[in-house]
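F.,

This is the one I mentioned.
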């Protein structure tokens, strides 16, 4: 459904401490193997150890890994072990220091993705919160980053055009804003892409 509406990438959500859209690794692998080659497949992972991330990417067969939390180790370890896999680092934009964090990450990854979670909570929020964040901080990150930047966090059919105008991201990422009762909603997807 997402591809039919115009998505050029699919986020396939593996085990997370919270948030919507989690599916089993077996289904992630099935989807990654079945979509057109022109559609990128992002494995969203909450794993933090490079070895665990590498093994998960290999099991799932995606062409991109989205790190929803900070890793224990270095991004260079991942890059070395997964040379043909694009790496996306999520930065949860919560305060001014998020700008420095995102710019630093941009030196070591293929993309940075700006979201509105809170990894400091007892039960980490690593995405799918439905909340927006300070888009002026995101715009500064877009201007300073050394790689392309995706915008996420509370995007929906009603605010996506304003978000694009304010931030000017390379791309956008969405989840909860196009769901109804936990399921992807074709009508909301249609409105979302029309407003892009």
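My design for it:
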């Amino acid at each position: 459904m997402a591809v039919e509406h115009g998505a050029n990438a699919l986020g396939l959500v593996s085990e997370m401490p919270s948030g919507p859209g989690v599916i089993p690794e077996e289904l992630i692998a099935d989807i990654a193997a079945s979509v057109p080659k022109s559609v990128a497949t992002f494995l969203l992972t909450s794993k933090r150890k490079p070895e665990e991330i590498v093994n998960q990417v290999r099991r799932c067969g995606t062409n991109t890994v989205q790190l929803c939390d900070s890793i224990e180790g270095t991004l260079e370890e991942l890059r070395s072990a997964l040379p043909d896999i694009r790496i996306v680092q999520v930065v949860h934009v919560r305060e001014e220091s998020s700008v420095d964090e995102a710019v630093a990450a941009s030196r070591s990854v293929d993309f940075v993705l700006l979201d509105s979670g809170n990894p400091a909570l007892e039960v980490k929020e690593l995405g799918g919160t439905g909340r927006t964040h300070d888009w002026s901080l995101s715009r500064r990150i877009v201007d300073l980053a050394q790689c392309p930047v995706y915008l996420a966090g509370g995007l929906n059919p009603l605010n996506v055009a304003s978000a694009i105008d304010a931030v000017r991201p390379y791309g956008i990422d969405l989840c909860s804003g196009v769901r109804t009762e936990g399921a992807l909603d074709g009508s909301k997807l249609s409105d979302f892409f029309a407003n892009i």
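The domain at 2-195 is CATH 3.20.20.70 (TIM Barrel).

Talk soon.
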